[in-house]
């Protein structure tokens, strides 16, 4: 008989408390450390995780990853796209092949990357075709489970489930029209069955399979696939008990399906979908099933209202076979530890719980539910709720309340287009970049010295201006039509603004993984937001003074600021977004007054916050689009407003992209080879568009011919006078050795295309 799950979490941060994995990965990729060095760092991180989770009754194993958990399954199943094995066999080590899928090689572009549900985490999209061969190519889940057992830990192997893996995949290049990766389900399930047998032999009592793709809208065929897969796995004679996880939303009909398959456990996200609590008593299959109740928020940083949580847990006790308590999803999305943040205001810090604090909350709730003498624990839970509240800024709230529809509306696009053409005089196929340029060690050092007080403001300004001038001269030499100042003064496209806006707090070590070695420090939006002074104007003014070419002012949009922050949960998101939008509106007005004729307001995360269920999209997009239009609605006709969107399934929000009413939209398109353009054409999008022709998330340098091919593809869908030529995203994470030749090739390819049209 397997022991109950008890208190647990569904995953944990894996970059290390001091970003040890990031540093080890980048050292390995640079060739300055060995695979053995990298593996040693990974083992230390996993040991630290086991220690952090020691207070729990059980913990997941296998949630560590060198890049992402979906890519791990691709490697486990040996579903490696053929371009990474041009001669039919693996070139180099398994680890190098794994990183090649993520980062590309000189001859093979990397796999497409997109957002993991409505989070800022990215995964590598599997490429599945009719001829993809599946086999159990490794034993990593078994090895990591045994590692935990050897350390005295009661572990639970965890990986992405077979059905979600295929639902998150795309058809491989060359697959016949209408082919669906889900059609390969039986073959994939056969490999999972083999793995479950090996886990059982290793002594695993439970296995955790993440089927969160079912919190999205799913067809009857897909639900039938879930039923078929888990009935087959449940019928295995030799296997661990199965915990099926549904995080990030409501699994709807999938809950009834899974509880009738014979699996022993279901994990539900009762934070994102609190209404699930009311459905538990009426879901017949749960009466003989372990329910892992996700009641501690795995995606935000606010302390749980523990008495309220405990009360909600009590309402489901009678409707399930066994009740366990958990985080709502993996704690991958939050930083490690609040206690190290010694610079946070006490009133803010008192409201926060990062991963280690959330583990303590889960452990306390678990003991309150099950331990003898639980009255004492219940009293401790009650004592946890004296949390300070956010201060109210009446002027900010009054201003939001006075917003009218006209504040979100500009003149007709045709009027604006003529005014902008007269002012800017740009050629067809105008070239630009998205904003940031590579940040050299000298730039990072100067910024760190300034923050630490080792460099005074005057010297810091001189150093940043020198870097801006260098970047401007480089862009002029490259022949770019619209320039940027390169953003040397910015540590992050959201944190930079959070550092200057009241209502935000920033952390020192609050790092969160975005993908691979890319980590971000999301600010904490804890109160009402205002803008007491300009944030970007002097840098933009200085950059424009250096050149006669148009210089873009660079801002981050309200939706993206919210998406990439930990946001207060005591008022509707739309109200918070409008507060941020009004601050940006004031900044745009000051940029215009400083002579800036183009302002880019990035909404890279527009798709990211889209709720999993289509029925909830309308309400979200109403406030998301409205906040962008509030930020930009005061701009003059002759001011050209750009926006930028990156790595997402854009077809889902194509009407909203049109609704933003930006004059130019630049968008990630290189990895997907311009798929977005068909969606834009379908909605009759008639403004400027810049589909990316340079994939900046890979270190490979594309050739001029590759870029020319993408430009030609774009020209088939967009007239030259509305088509912009640009990279996929900002260049901050790349090096000049990659960026300069690629941008030169991009400009040359654009000039060639312009010449071929006779313009």
**How many individual β-strands?**
23
Uncertain runs = none
Write down the domain tally.
2
Rg result? 26 Å
Anisotropy-based shape:
globular
Helix content: 25-40%
Strand order, largest beta sheet: 1-5-7-8-9-10-11
Distance between the termini: 77 Å
Give the count of helical stretches. Answer: 27
Structural class: alpha/beta
Structure description:
This protein has 759 residues and is an alpha/beta fold. It has two domains: 20-383, TIM Barrel (Alpha-Beta Barrel); 420-500 and 535-756, TIM Barrel. The chain contains 27 helices and 23 strands. The strands form seven sheets. A seven-stranded parallel sheet has the order 1-5-7-8-9-10-11. A five-stranded parallel sheet has the order 17-19-20-21-22. α9 (253-258) links the parallel β8 (241-246) and β9 (265-269). The longest helix is centred in the middle third of the chain and has 22 residues, at 457-478. The N and C termini lie far apart (77 Å). The model has no long low-confidence stretch (mean pLDDT 93).
């Amino acid at each position: 008989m397997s022991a109950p799950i008890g208190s647990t979490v569904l995953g944990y941060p894996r970059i290390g408390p001091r970003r040890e994995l990031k540093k080890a990965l980048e050292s390995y990729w640079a060739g300055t450390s060995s695979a053995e060095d990298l593996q040693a760092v990974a083992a230390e991180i996993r040991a630290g995780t086991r220690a952090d989770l020691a207070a729990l009754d059980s913990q997941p194993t296998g949630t560590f990853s060198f890049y992402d958990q979906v890519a791990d399954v691709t490697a486990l199943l040996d579903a490696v796209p053929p371009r990474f094995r041009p001669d039919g066999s693996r070139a180099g080590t398994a680890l190098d092949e794994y990183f090649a899928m993520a980062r590309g090689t000189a001859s093979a572009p990397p796999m497409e990357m997109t957002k993991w549900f409505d989070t800022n985490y990215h995964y590598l999209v599997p490429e599945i075709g009719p001829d993809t061969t599946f086999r159990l190519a490794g034993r990593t889940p078994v090895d990591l489970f045994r590692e935990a057992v050897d350390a005295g830990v009661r572990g639970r192997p965890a990986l992405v489930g077979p059905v979600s893996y295929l639902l998150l995949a795309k058809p491989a290049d060359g697959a016949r029209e209408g082919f669906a990766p889900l059609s390969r389900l039986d073959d994939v399930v056969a490999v999972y069955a083999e793995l479950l047998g090996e886990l059982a032999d290793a002594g695993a009592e439970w296995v955790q399979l993440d089927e969160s793709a079912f919190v999205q809208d799913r067809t009857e065929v897909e639900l039938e696939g879930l039923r078929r897969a888990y009935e087959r796995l449940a019928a295995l004679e030799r296997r661990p008990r199965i915990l099926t996880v549904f995080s990030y939303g409501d699994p709807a009909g999938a809950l009834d399906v899974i509880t009738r398959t014979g699996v022993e456990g279901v994990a539900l996200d009762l934070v994102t979908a609190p209404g699930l609590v009311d459905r538990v008593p009426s879901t017949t299959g749960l009466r003989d099933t372990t329910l892992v109740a996700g009641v501690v928020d795995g995606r935000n940083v606010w302390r749980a209202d523990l008495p309220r949580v405990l009360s909600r847990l009590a309402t489901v006790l009678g409707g399930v076979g066994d009740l366990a308590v958990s985080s709502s999803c993996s704690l991958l999305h939050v930083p490690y530890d609040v206690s190290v943040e010694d610079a946070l205001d006490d009133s803010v810090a008192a409201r926060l719980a990062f991963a280690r604090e959330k583990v303590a909350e889960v452990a306390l709730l678990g003991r309150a539910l099950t331990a003898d003498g639980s009255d004492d624990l219940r009293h401790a839970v009650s004592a946890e709720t004296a949390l300070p509240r956010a201060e109210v800024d009446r002027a900010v709230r009054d201003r939001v309340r006075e917003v009218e529809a006209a504040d979100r509306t500009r003149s007709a696009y045709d009027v604006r287009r003529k005014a902008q053409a007269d002012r800017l005089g740009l050629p067809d196929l105008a070239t630009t970049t998205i904003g940031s340029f590579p940040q050299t060690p000298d730039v990072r050092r100067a910024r760190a010295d300034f923050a630490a007080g080792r460099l005074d403001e005057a010297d810091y300004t001189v150093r940043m201006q020198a870097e801006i001038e260098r970047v401007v001269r480089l862009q002029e030499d490259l022949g770019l039509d619209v320039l940027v100042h390169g953003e040397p003064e910015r540590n992050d496209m959201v944190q930079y603004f959070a550092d200057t806006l009241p209502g935000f707090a920033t952390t020192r070590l609050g790092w969160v993984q975005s993908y691979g070695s890319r980590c971000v420090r999301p600010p904490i939006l804890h109160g009402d937001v205002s803008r007491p002074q300009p944030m970007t104007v002097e840098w933009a003014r200085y950059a424009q003074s250096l050149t006669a070419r148009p210089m873009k002012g660079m801002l981050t949009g309200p939706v993206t600021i919210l998406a990439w922050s930990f946001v207060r949960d005591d008022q509707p998101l739309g109200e918070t977004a409008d507060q941020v939008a009004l601050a940006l509106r004031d900044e745009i007005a000051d940029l215009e007054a400083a002579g800036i004729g183009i302002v880019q307001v990035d909404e890279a995360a527009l798709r990211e916050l889209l709720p999993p269920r289509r029925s909830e999209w309308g309400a979200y997009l109403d406030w998301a689009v409205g906040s962008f239009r509030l930020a930009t609605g005061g701009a003059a006709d002759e001011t050209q407003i750009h926006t930028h969107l990156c790595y997402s399934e854009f077809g889902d929000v194509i009407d909203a992209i049109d609704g933003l009413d930006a004059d130019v939209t630049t968008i990630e398109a290189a990895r997907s080879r311009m798929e977005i353009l068909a969606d834009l054409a379908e909605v009759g999008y008639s403004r400027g568009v810049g589909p990316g022709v340079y994939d900046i998330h890979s270190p490979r340098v594309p050739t001029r011919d590759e870029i020319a091919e993408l430009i030609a593809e774009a020209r088939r869908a967009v007239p030259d006078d509305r088509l912009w030529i640009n990279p996929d995203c900002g260049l901050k994470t790349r090096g000049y050795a990659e960026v300069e030749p690629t941008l030169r090739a991009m400009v040359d390819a654009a000039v060639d295309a312009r010449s071929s049209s006779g313009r």
